[in-house]
Amino acid sequence: MQRLNREQMAARVAKDIPEGAYVNLGIGLPTMVANYLPTDKDIFLQSENGLLGMGPAPAKGEEDWELINAGKQAVTLLTGGCFFHHADSFAMMRGGHLDICVLGAFQVSVNGDLANWHTGEPGAIPAVGGAMDLAIGAKQTFVMMELLTKQGQSKLVESCTYPLTGLACVSRVYTDLAVFEVGAAGASVVEMVDGLSLDELQGLAGVPLRAAEGARN
Amino acid sequence: MQRLNREQMAARVAKDIPEGAYVNLGIGLPTMVANYLPTDKDIFLQSENGLLGMGPAPAKGEEDWELINAGKQAVTLLTGGCFFHHADSFAMMRGGHLDICVLGAFQVSVNGDLANWHTGEPGAIPAVGGAMDLAIGAKQTFVMMELLTKQGQSKLVESCTYPLTGLACVSRVYTDLAVFEVGAAGASVVEMVDGLSLDELQGLAGVPLRAAEGARN
Amino acid sequence: MIDKSMSSAAAAVADIRDGASVMIGGFGTAGMPDELIDALIARGVGNLTIINNNAGNGETGVAALIKAGRVRKIICSFPRQSDSHHFDARYRAGEIELELVPQGNLAARIQAAGAGLGAIFTPTGYGTLLAEGKETREIDGKQYVLEHPIQADFALIKAHRGDRWGNLTYRKTARNFGPIMAMAAKCTIAQVAQIVPLGGIDPEIVVTPGIFVQRVVEIAPANATASA
Amino acid sequence: MIDKSMSSAAAAVADIRDGASVMIGGFGTAGMPDELIDALIARGVGNLTIINNNAGNGETGVAALIKAGRVRKIICSFPRQSDSHHFDARYRAGEIELELVPQGNLAARIQAAGAGLGAIFTPTGYGTLLAEGKETREIDGKQYVLEHPIQADFALIKAHRGDRWGNLTYRKTARNFGPIMAMAAKCTIAQVAQIVPLGGIDPEIVVTPGIFVQRVVEIAPANATASA
Q1: What residue numbers bound the domain in which A133 lies?
Q2: Which of B48, B125, B128 sits opposite C130 (nearest CB)?
Q3: For the domain C5-124+143-218, what is the CATH superfamily, name and number?
Q4: Nearest Cα to A23, choosing from A8, A7, A10?
Q5: Which residues contact C9 (CB under 8 A, 6 or more apart)?
Q6: Contact C45, C70 (CB under 8 A)
Q7: Contacts of C128 in chain B (CB under 8 A)
Q8: What percentage of chain A reaches a pLDDT higher than 90?
Q9: Is the distance from CB of A104 to CB of A131 less than 8 angstroms?
Q10: What CATH code is carried by the domain that includes residue A165?
Q11: What's the sign of the alpha-carbon dihedral A92, A97, A101, A107?
Q12: Is residue B97 part of a domain?
């Protein structure tokens, strides 16, 4: 089997974002999704620090450090984009106006609980940012992560052991091995990389899996 | 004794509004106060329908019906004024940013309860508008009213019989016969019109009155 | 390409159904989306719940909707005015339900809906008839009333300029409830004096970002009902 | 004549006292009022409670304030960053208290303070560590956490243009927390790139009305600390 690399994962997520969607891409890995969105379609990227219609990074030397994204990287504004303050920005999420957010995760449970903000380790300095707002606010929360930790443990779990970000908020999980739907009915497999069987995936994931209707390999 | 007419009452209220104050003048009688504010001082009139820095009425024929006050009269905007939406407008009141509001009243109690929105009569159609927000939101709520009803009953009362607008919210009452302070300590007389004695006023008002410190006749 | 502009007011309101809840912008006649309301009247649907600051003025806008008998319930702060005779008549006949809300609570409840809050403790109305039966709480020595968000199926608002992504600016005090209603309705329909090309509105001065607006229809002021 | 403009950053912060609560605008370095913070550091007062989205980046702004040992407590959403070493050190040494608040709750609580709400039921954080011990409620089938307003004695914010009445506009994503902090503090001090004559800002594009601003000080960008 051929695991997806991060670029391929980003491209896979991008494929599920329809034209017209209002989307927030979390900091880190999800930010890469922007590189794979079709340029001939209007997809609206929101950044929680107050912009809608976020464009690509500026050319080197043309950075404006008052035009940044949530990861504090210099960005640009598309024609038709706009600025607003933080309360309006978070109203977009919490009020259910945002269609999709894409977040990274430490763990996702089969019912859609998300853990992505805090390792819970003693001495760790916690930081949450907008993760909790995004997770529960967007109409759909997608997670993008490698299925296994470096130690080979599944990050798709029966029940999260890391501190939670939100309850029952994730609908889809995009990994290097498969795409899952999670929720009240448990986890189902939407698609797998070539050469991987459901049994093998089940073994790796370590949680009960069904094939989703119309699942493909 | 010489009762103040409405113009004189308005002028009297205006005298107590200092430069720099943010002020909302209620619809009806209080609107007249604007005519007596000093034109050489910066006093900021707010209208709850979304403007700050309200100016006088426009010349006849120059009305812009998208530039109106809370009483739906055409107004103007002073240089330096601005527009905003309703939630921000009421945040100005309810968040305690407005210094003074001036309201009319059916009744004010000696402890500062206000009744000015509803007669409570069967069949009356109630309408409250922004009265309740102004009454409890402004740092100081002034009432401007004739002391007696047409039937000769005092509108300064021990306890309001009309439905309340707000509890313990009025600090000063400007009437045609006297200016009162009201509050937890009861009602006191700040000043009276010429030729009126405290005893006479007491008789008319029908509530216990003290002379305020520094009261004048 | 996403283009939220509609060919006509009629097309813009074509899916508003019987029994819908509809926020309508405007304070008095300023900001009242008369042409959208006329199109709604022409559609013939009724049993509507209307959220507006007033209960109609004169013969146009919300007053016309009430006159036509399309309104089952109105949520507003100031129904009784010298020119609210259509509401008065229906109300006295028991044909329209009134939920009277202090204006600041109305604004705050609409804003709360747009922002996804579950409820708010508001200072206005405590100890009055309008808070009767409502939960209250003392917080830091001050009394508050618990109020719940007001959301709606549709918002009909009047803005000044708009673009195909739904970005809006307003004009003077016609702004009033427009920006917060746009955030609180499932489907916001804005009539604008002018639709400008994308980028025609400076990104710094957009008042309502397009995410809150689903449809935009240009109604040139020349064609607009006189709003006196 | 009311003129809220101040001659210098030092004059603008001259009455901030030991133990004060101070909101500071900015998301990362964008919108961070560096010169006002430098003036506050120069004043020498400490024991401050700071409300900011972060806990300092690099060596300037909030980071410099923390480095100088002036901060007793910080209320923020995202303290841990690659360049938050001054906070990290003080925190690990037990010298600074941290109240961690999800960013949307932070914004909503600040906005609630400015709007005079007593408390809000917010959807964020339910079922997490950050809601532990807090009142919760199910409303219409959804779970909420009760959160209280955050107000402050002062707000230090960075805007773009201002006038003598305190009207403000902002620049790009430097807007962030400025408008809501201005509404939530007893005394709001804005540094602006330019003070313009009254009327120099179109009344339609004022973002923060002057009623929310007590002092304005011009810090020309040429003199401003590089904000990379």
Answers
A1: 6-211
A2: B128
A3: Glutaconate Coenzyme A-transferase (3.40.1080.10)
A4: A10
A5: C35, C36, C38, C39, C191, C217, C219
A6: yes
A7: 132, 163-166
A8: 91
A9: no
A10: 3.40.1080.10
A11: positive
A12: yes
Q: Does B184 touch chain C (CB under 8 A)?
A: no
Could you tell me which residues are beta bridge partners of residue D154? D22, D187
Nearest to A174 by CA among A2, A8, A9, A1: A9
Look-up: residue for tokens 């036509």?
A: C68
Contacts of C130 in chain B (CB under 8 A): 128, 132
pLDDT of A217: 62
For B91, nearest residue in chain D (alpha carbons)? D115
Q: Is B194 exposed, middle or buried (0-12, 13-18, 19+ CB in 10 A)?
A: exposed
Facing residue for B86 by CB, picked from C107, C171, C172: C107
Residues 6 or more apart whose CB falls under 8 angstroms from that of C12 comprise C6, C36, C39, C189, C191, C215, C217
Tell which residue, B59, B77, B69, has the closest CA to residue B31: B69
Task: State the catalytic residue, choosing from B48, B146, B158, B213.
Answer: B48
Residues of A labelled catalytic: 48
From residue A146, how far is each of A140, A182, A186 by CA, in Å?
20, 16, 19
C21-24 and C152-162 as β-strands: parallel, antiparallel, unpaired? parallel
Split into its structural domains, chain A has a count of: 1
pTM over 0.90: yes
Q: Percentage of chain D surpassing pLDDT 70?
A: 97
**pLDDT tens per residue, range B128-152:** 999 999 999 999 999 999 999 999 9
Q: Which among C183, C207, C190, C101 is positioned nearest to C147, based on CA atoms?
A: C101
Model confidence at D167: pLDDT above 50: yes
Residue D227: per-residue pLDDT: 44
- A217 occurs within a structural domain: no
Which tokens hold the place of B102?
Answer: 């001036």
CA dist list (Å): C88 to A67, C71, D143: 53, 13, 40
Interface test with D, best of C136, C204, C208 (most D CBs within 10 A): C204
Minimal Cα–Cα distance from D190 to chain C, Å?
Answer: 18
Residue B159 carries which side chain, given as an amino acid letter? S
Question: Where residue D226 falls among pLDDT bands split at 50, 70, 90?
Answer: very low
* Distance, CA of C215 to chain centre: 15
Q: pLDDT (tens digit, 9 = 90+) per residue, D86-138?
A: 999 999 999 999 999 999 999 999 999 999 999 999 999 999 999 999 999 99
In a domain, residue A154? The reply is: yes
**Residue of B17, B45, B78, B82 to mutate, interface with D, max D Cβ within 10 Å:** B82
Q: Which regions of chain C are under pLDDT 50? A: 223-228
Distance from CA of B66 to the nearest CA of D (A): 13
pLDDT in tens, D58-88: 999 999 999 999 999 999 999 988 889 999 9
User: Would you list the domain boundaries of chain D?
Assistant: 5-124+143-218
Q: Find the closest chain C residue to B46 by CA distance.
A: C173
On whether any CB of chain A is under 8 Å from the CB of D121, the answer is no
Secondary structure of chain B in the HEC alphabet? CCCCCHHHHHHHHHHCCCCCCEEEECCCHHHHHHHHCCCCCCCEEEECCCEEEEECCCCCCCCCCCCECCCCCECEEEEEEEECCHHHHHHHHHCCCCCEEEECCCEEECCCCEECCCCCCCCCCCCCCCHHHHHHHCCEEEEECCCECCCCCECEECCCCCCCCECCCEEEEECCCEEEECCCCCEEEEEECCCCCHHHHHHHHCCCEEEEEEEEC
The phi and psi torsions of C31 (rounded to 5 degrees) equal 85, 5
Residue A1, in any domain of the structure:
no
Contact B96, D185 (CB under 8 A): no
Separation in Å, CA D114 to CA B192, D54, D184? 39, 21, 4
Spacing of C-alpha B26 from chain mean position: 6
Q: What is the mean pLDDT of residues B54-79?
A: 96
